[in-house]
Each structure stands twice: as C-alpha cells, then as structure tokens.
Amino acid sequence: MISDVSLELFRATLDGSKPSVQKRKISSINQYLYYQYQNGFLDRFYRLAPTNTPSKTTPKKVDLQIREFPEFYAPIQSLGQFIALLILEFGFTFAEIQNLKWENFNWAFRILTVEKKGIKRILPIREKFAIRVKGITNADELFSKSRQFLYLELKKYTPNTSKELREQYILRQRKSGKSIYETAENLGLSTIVTLERYYK
C-alpha cells in the first residue's frame, strides 16, 4: 500500500547508497507513482523528494556522543519499547527484526544466533537486556509484522529513529573496544565503508 509512511520507509533503505543510485531509484519510483495517479489507481499524486545528499566538500557531521536511554530498560510496556531495545542492543534494521525467531535467543548461554544471506553470526546478549525481555511469550508474533508496523510502533514509543538508535549501537561497540571490523561483523556488513565515519 502506497502512503507517506511507506515512501519514507523506502527512502530509509537508500541510506548508504551512492548519490547516483539514489537519484536513479527515486526517479523510477516517481515515474511509477505518476503513472498510478494518472490512471486512477491513486487518489492523489505522491512524490518522493530527492535525498539531501551532502557534497564531498561539506560532509555531514556525525554526533559521536553516546546517549543513555534508561526508560528503555524499564519493565516492558509496549511493542515500541521492545523494538527500541532490539535496535539499541543489536543494531538491527527492521528487516532483520522481521527475520528473527524467538527460539534463536539462548538465554542459558546469553547468545543470539542470527542468519543473514546464508551467513550465521553469534551475538552476545547482555544481562541488562535479558532480564527485561526473556519472559516475553509472543515475540514471534511481532517478528511476523510488516516494516510499516514496526516503524509506527517505534515512532509511537520514542522520537528517536531506528537510524539514530543503530548509530548508538555502533558508538557503544566502539567505546567497548570493538574494532571497526568486529562491529561490521556484528552488524552483518560486508564492508566497513559505512562505519568509517564513526571510527575517525
């Protein structure tokens, strides 16, 4: 279903792509949206605005300050809070949350097994996270929800975006002594390019 929210979710998937790639994909989407509107499939003309890609001469500054989120670690009261914890603790994207299975959380050994594109990685589970969420009994129901649902639930709970919380995960990894390569491995990234600005 096409909506302002779904278009913003699509825009989020372009983060980290080359400007030329972003421009090409946005142009294709806008052509499709215009066709849908012109033929009566949409009640109004939706348009995805160009991304504000910073130039090489004025690189976007990264806030390297680690922030505390004590409210996230209060007893779980909402789906949004659980989603926020998953992103802050593991650096997950919405797509990765959708691929989780509750059976892969090993509470005895405090590890989480995640598979992405056929590659498995083992992530440590912090006690601080475990004591808040291990009693949840219907997590698989959440993991089966759409990205739009996850986005809206997170938005209802906190003004912090998934990207901001993911950045906080990266900064915590760096502070704990993890190298840029270890952080990339934990995030399931094939290169370190998108992490370089956090390790300068």
UniProtKB/TrEMBL annotation:
GO terms for biological process: DNA integration; DNA recombination. Residues 57-200 form the Tyr recombinase domain. The keyword Nucleotide-binding does not apply. Keywords: DNA recombination. SUPFAM superfamilies: DNA breaking-rejoining enzymes (SSF56349). InterPro entries: DNA_brk_join_enz (IPR011010), Integrase-like_cat_sf (IPR013762), Integrase_catalytic (IPR002104). GO terms for molecular function: DNA binding. It comes from the Bacteria. This is Site-specific tyrosine recombinase XerD.
